[in-house]
Structure formats: C-alpha cells, structure tokens
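User: Just a sanity check before I run the rest of the batch. Below are the structure tokens for the first item. I only need the designed sequence back.
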C-alpha cells in the first residue's frame, strides 16, 4: 500500500471549508498529486478534492490527472478508494474504463489475468507516471497470500506476482517467505493460522423438559 504521510498545512487549508470549492486551487492540488506519484505517498482526501472540483468545473478536468488518481487508488486495495473516486466522475474515458478493468481483476484476486492485461501497452502507460506502481501491486498481492496461506506452490506464487528467478527470490526474502522444494512456506500469523471453532448451544431447563415431553408423546 502507498505510504500515507502528514498532509502539508498548505494543502489542508485548501481542502477545508469553502476553499475546497475554489477552482483556483486546482493547480496546487494537481502539483501535490504529482508529488505523490513521484515519491510513493498517498493522500486520498486531497485527491478526492481534485475530482470534486472537476465535477463542478468539467471544462477544467484533465484525463491524465484522473487516471493518476485512479492508479494511486489501485495501490490502496482492499480499501474502497477506487470506487470512492469513481463515484465523482461525470464521464468515464477509455483510460478510466481500462483502470476499472484492472481494479476488478485485483478485487477478484485474478492476478494472472491482471498481469496479462496490465502488460498490454495501452494499460501500462496509464500508470507510467506512478513511480513504484508494480511493486505496490505486488505488495498488496503478497499481503493477500500471507493472510490466506501457510504454504503454496512456488509456480502459483510466481504467476500471481509475475516474478521469476532472482527477482522472485529477492521478493520472497523481503516477505520472510522460505522455499522448500516446489513450495513457498509462509510464517504463521493471526490471519492464516488454523483456528478451532467451538460451537456452544445453551438450552434452558424448561426447553429441555418440553423436548423430553414431546419425545414421550411419540
């Protein structure tokens, strides 16, 4: 997930109160988005403020800015940020539709198809301004794997991450995964640990006497 940093006071003032509806603030907010794309930080509220201004001032809307906002929100999955941004769009360009396709594939955990689709030039260029986008996506996929598995076939993990060889070995080490034969072993954690389920039924005495009574009548 993209790191969230303290919002600059100058930006806070622009998205507070009536100032958030002033279209003259767009240039500053767009510049702040550009900084997020370069340094890996993420500020959903500031980005939503841009989309809200575009909603009220459609002639000022910039498709490349919208796509950058959506690309950044993809790195926040499973948070609902992408849909929150989508709801503010009056029109959806071809780029927006492509990014929506990527979002749906990630939400469906269809990672193999995600990478196959993403690697098409028309999709990949939509995230080209977001530095570290691919690594951020791999990190969110790794979190899902870590939460849902204690062990998984190496070939499957490689297909999920679109990594092989030394790149895969390095990534696995960063995640503290170990490889045993053809299997990747994942440390036990509170999410992937098997838990016994205890079912308790509390039956009151008067209910029990009714059950016994019914059985005697049969």
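Assistant: Here's the designed sequence for the first item:
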């Amino acid at each position: 997930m993209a790191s969230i940093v303290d919002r600059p006071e100058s930006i806070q003032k622009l998205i507070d109160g009536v100032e958030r509806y002033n279209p003259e603030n767009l240039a500053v907010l767009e510049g702040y988005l550009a900084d997020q794309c370069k340094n890996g930080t993420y500020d959903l509220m500031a980005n939503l403020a841009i989309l809200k201004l575009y909603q009220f001032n459609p002639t000022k809307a910039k498709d490349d800015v919208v796509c950058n906002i959506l690309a950044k929100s993809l790195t926040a999955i499973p948070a609902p940020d992408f849909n929150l941004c989508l709801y503010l769009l009056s029109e959806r360009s071809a780029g927006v539709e492509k990014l929506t396709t990527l979002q749906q594939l990630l939400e469906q955990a269809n990672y193999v198809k995600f990478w196959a689709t993403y690697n098409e030039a028309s999709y990949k260029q939509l995230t080209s301004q977001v530095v570290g986008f691919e690594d951020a996506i791999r990190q969110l996929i790794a979190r899902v794997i870590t939460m849902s598995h204690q062990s998984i076939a190496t070939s499957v993990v490689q297909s999920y991450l679109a990594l092989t060889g030394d790149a895969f070995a390095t990534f696995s080490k960063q995640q503290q995964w170990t490889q045993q034969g053809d299997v990747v072993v994942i440390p036990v954690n509170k999410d992937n640990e098997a838990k016994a389920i205890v079912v308790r039924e509390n039956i009151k005495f008067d209910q029990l006497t009714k059950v016994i009574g019914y059985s005697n009548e049969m």
